[in-house]
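Okay, any thoughts on this one?
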Amino acid sequence: MISRRVALVACILSLLVLPACNDAIDDTASPVWLTVSSIEPSSDPFGDVYDSELGSFMSDTVDVSLSVNFANQANPPTGTAYTTVQLTSYRVTYLRIDNGNDVPAGFQEALTLSVEVGNNVTISDLTICRAGQKLQPPLYYLTPFSYGFEPGTGYTTISCNCIIDFYGHTLAGEAVSASGGIGINFADYAN
């Protein structure tokens, strides 16, 4: 009697585990890849928390190159009219690389751009740090109106990796995304 129960339990457990062992392909996956090819600073000086020459806080911007290609180059899908990617937004987050803890607040912004398969596009002057972020800690601490250094570390520079995530979808509605990053050293640079 016990061996029948053990066999029944084993049979039920194997039926529950078997679906997790299959190699089924996710048919909702996009047939294209969105790729961040390059990110280059476009504002000068890049990372300056306050422009004393202009007497203002300035945004930091970058030029970003993106491309869209088929995920399976050897066997691209037929009927590719709906594989164009429509970008809808981007998100910026920061990661400290100088042993500090405080980072500027991240943000997400709308973006409207279409990229056809096989094409490269460049987004010029994409904002990765808004001027208003430099009026808030920890960046404000580096300005001549505050300490001139970050109180938590004593550093006059805040070094971060800026991570930019792009979001969109194919014209068929399949989600696509890509990420890229660039290092930025925030400081009050002499103008």
